[in-house]
């Protein structure tokens, strides 16, 4: 579930959809995909309405009938509309950052599509955020808390014997003193990868586990999965690489989505394919080409913003 305000990724996606709708080149399939995108989060429809008003009300409604009318009467080229949409997005983002959540000594840090941030926290700990990630930082006299709302982070914790550093996700908490690890908030769980020392994981249901250096674990609110050894360079994403060892295509595409504007659809059959390799995160088009060469898949480009992957 999205927070009470849209992040940069959502605003960017809305701008791209509006550009496609106003270009007059959207297909019926793309129109259905747009409606599905909006249905995934009520906040998306609000963003579309606000940006439409900011662009002179050129997309007045959200129904199929009104969207088709907009498609049949384009008023600007795709390029012009993209520029206009992104200009409105920039204004919206400025307002959002000016009014971002502040509470309990906390702040919101986030990244957009294709953006990584390397930050120094108030206690001297290092925080690296992957693309399309968001974390609430709450440091005070009693606690050091990072609430990972989405995406992935790496934290190099500065030792503080009186204030353990906690990373909270939708499924539980990770407690550390002085250590280095990364956490990914996935669609149906949390993935923890230990890089140095040890941490303790506690799920929302109360299950506990210690995770040591070179180990990784996935957990849900009521379930801890088995410990596994870290495979490959788990931190390669910091340098813009995705190193894959015997992972599913669905997992790989989930990572690439953070670095590519628009939509990437993967069929269930294609998502189950296993692969190994190294892929450039900062050049998603090249990564798709490499995937097409190494796997029995068909990649269809319906527009600049919508790619579908299936088996032949």
Automatic annotation (TrEMBL):
One of its GO terms (molecular function) is sigma factor antagonist activity. It comes from the Bacteria. Residues 13-51 form the FecR N-terminal domain. Residues 108-200 form the FecR protein domain. This is FecR family protein. It comes from Pseudomonas peradeniyensis.
